[in-house]
Amino acid sequence: MTSSSATSYLWYKDGVSTGTTTQAYTATASGVYYVRAGNASNCYRYSLPYNVTINPNPTVFSVTGGTQCGSATVGLSGS
Q1: Considering only Cβ atoms within 10 Å of each terminal Cβ, which end of the chain, N or C, has fewer?
Q2: pLDDT along the chain (79 residues), means of 10
Q3: Closest C-alpha to 35, from 43, 63, 24
């Protein structure tokens, strides 16, 4: 996520500061995120909240063997 240009930034997840003070933030967990952006006069504005869903990695599986066709085998793997 990237905020519009400002002098200072503070990112929040679920209403709690993440401690991140950069213009861009990479979410690593699901939650509701927003940023507080400020200017040189210490005037702060909050962004609208953004709901982020981080999906778990897919299950990796491997299948070998199966029905033979002549001397060839059929294999399937995923990553």
Answers
A1: C
A2: 94 97 95 96 94 87 60 58
A3: 24
Entry pTM: 0.71
Phi, psi of 67 (to 5 degrees): -70, 135
- For 18, left (φ over 0), alpha (ψ -120 to 50), or beta? alpha
**With contact defined as beta carbons under 8 Å apart, do 24 and 2 qualify?**
yes
Strands 44-46 and 31-38: antiparallel
DSSP secondary structure string, 30-55? -EEEEEEEE-TT--EEEPPPEEE--P
pLDDT of 52? 95
> DSSP label at 56?
P
At 20, the amino acid letter reads: T
